[in-house]
């Protein structure tokens, strides 16, 4: 925890009337949980401030909040922009952070590029939402943690830690979560939401588990062809949420789920329980964490290249064991 930088963030928050929070493109639970948690916390604590969350919306994260549509660019000029959960600036969901008078970066990914007047990166935090709680803990006398903020932050922590399973989760994570419970968190509501599935999605999951493929050295993968989405009537977001279903096999340290996000734009959700994969993702226009990364392949043909590289990585990992 960097107290000096948290102090600088706190001072900037106090000095702006309008604050605009920017999550990354294709926002996940942590990006939106962090954004809405911070929004609710600031709005409850400072009655004179207006806080917006902008960028892409997502059906999955709409449970926590839906971004504001700000049509007037001039709102940004006098505002403080807070960019959350994003290592690469070109992944920002709304480019108008460039218009903001000052910007803050709050992130927990391995640093890819420097940006923001205050750059706060803490890779030891398994979810960016926990950094909001570091801010809260340091300036408790100034901030109010409401139920809405607690629910949003919990949603972020829960989804980015795979329900407290991934590396980086420690006693501190649970001490912070305990604080969310003390602030009115309705965990049951969040779990109910996350556990509800459509029948179509359940059938699609069965299809993926029947049809995944595996390379020689244990890279498990599945290619979500556009026709499958039509066939099973599931959307891309829910289909790609199945990534971790491919990670449950013995002797299979790396797994990948491919999908076409826009016509001709194939991306990969890459995961590991062995070797670090963020460098591999970086080779294919991606990045992320050591054990959870994403990459952009472009065409379906290029998926074979990353699979070949991932297979070699799995091989050398196994040889080194
Ligand atoms: P995802 O599979 O989308 O959940 O991504 C896993 C992690 O990798 C997240 O922390 C993302 O922020 C990061 N990530 C995904 N795609 C990219 C990309 N193209 N460039 C950099 N980081 C990425």
List the helices and strands and how they pair.
Blueprint: H1 3-15, E1 18-22, H2 29-45, E2 50-53, H3 74-77, E3 80-84, E4 102-107, E5 118-121, H4 129-138, H5 147-160, H6 171-182, H7 187-195, H8 199-211, E6 213-214, E7 219-224, H9 226-232, H10 236-240, E8 254-262, E9 265-272, H11 278-283, E10 287-288, E11 292-298, H12 303-320
Parallel strand pairs: 1-2, 1-3, 3-4, 4-5, 7-8
Antiparallel strand pairs: 6-7, 8-9, 9-11, 10-11
Helix pairs in contact: 2-4, 2-5, 4-5
The protein binds adenosine monophosphate.
Adenosine monophosphate is lined by residues 28, 87-88, 91, 109, 269, 286-289, 292-296.
| Multimer state | single chain
Class inferred from helices and paired strands: alpha/beta
Radius of gyration: 20 Å
Mean pLDDT: 96
Uncertain ranges: none
The strand order across the widest sheet is 6-7-8-9-11-10
- Do you know the CATH topology of the largest domain? inorganic pyrophosphatase (n-terminal core)
Query: Can you say what the CATH homologous superfamily of the largest domain is?
Result: inorganic pyrophosphatase (n-terminal core)
Instruction: Outline the biggest β-sheet.
Output: 6 strands, mixed
Portion of residues within helices: 25-40%
Please give the CATH architecture of the largest domain. Answer: Alpha-Beta Complex
Ions, cofactors and other ligands present here are:
adenosine monophosphate
Q: What is the count of β-strands?
A: 11
The general outline is globular
Q: Helical region count?
A: 12
CATH domain class of the largest domain: Alpha Beta
Name the helix and strand elements from N-terminus to C-terminus, one letter apiece.
HEHEHEEEHHHHHEEHHEEHEEH
């Amino acid at each position: 925890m960097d107290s000096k930088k948290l102090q600088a963030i706190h001072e900037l928050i106090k000095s702006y009337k309008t604050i605009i929070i920017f999550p990354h493109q294709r926002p996940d639970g942590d990006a939106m949980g962090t954004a809405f948690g911070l929004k609710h916390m600031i709005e409850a604590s400072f009655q004179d401030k207006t806080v917006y969350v902008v960028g892409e919306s997502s059906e999955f994260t709409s449970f926590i909040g839906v971004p504001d549509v700000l049509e007037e660019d001039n709102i940004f000029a006098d505002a403080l922009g807070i960019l959350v959960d994003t290592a690469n600036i070109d992944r920002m969901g709304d480019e108008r952070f460039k218009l903001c008078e000052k910007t803050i970066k709050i992130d927990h990914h391995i640093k890819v590029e420097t940006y923001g007047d205050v750059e706060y990166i803490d890779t030891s935090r398994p979810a960016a939402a926990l950094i909001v709680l570091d801010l809260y803990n340091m300036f408790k006398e100034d901030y109010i943690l409401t139920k809405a903020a607690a629910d949003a932050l919990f949603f972020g922590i829960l989804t980015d830690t795979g329900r407290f399973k991934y590396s980086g989760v420690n006693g501190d994570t649970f001490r912070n979560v305990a604080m969310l419970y003390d602030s009115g968190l309705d965990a049951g509501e969040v779990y109910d939401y996350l556990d509800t599935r459509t029948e179509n999605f359940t059938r699609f999951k069965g299809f993926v588990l029947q049809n995944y493929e595996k390379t020689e050295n244990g890279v498990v993968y599945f290619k979500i062809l556009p026709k499958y989405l039509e066939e099973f009537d599931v959307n891309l977001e829910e289909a790609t949420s199945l990534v971790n279903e491919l990670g449950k096999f013995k002797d299979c340290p790396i797994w990948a789920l491919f999908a076409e996000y826009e016509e001709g734009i194939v991306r990969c959700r890459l995961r590991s329980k062995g070797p670090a994969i963020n460098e591999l993702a970086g080779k294919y226009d991606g990045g992320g964490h050591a054990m959870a990364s994403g990459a952009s392949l472009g065409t379906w043909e290029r998926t074979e290249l990353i699979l070949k590289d991932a297979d070699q990585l799995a091989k050398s990992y196994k040889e080194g064991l």
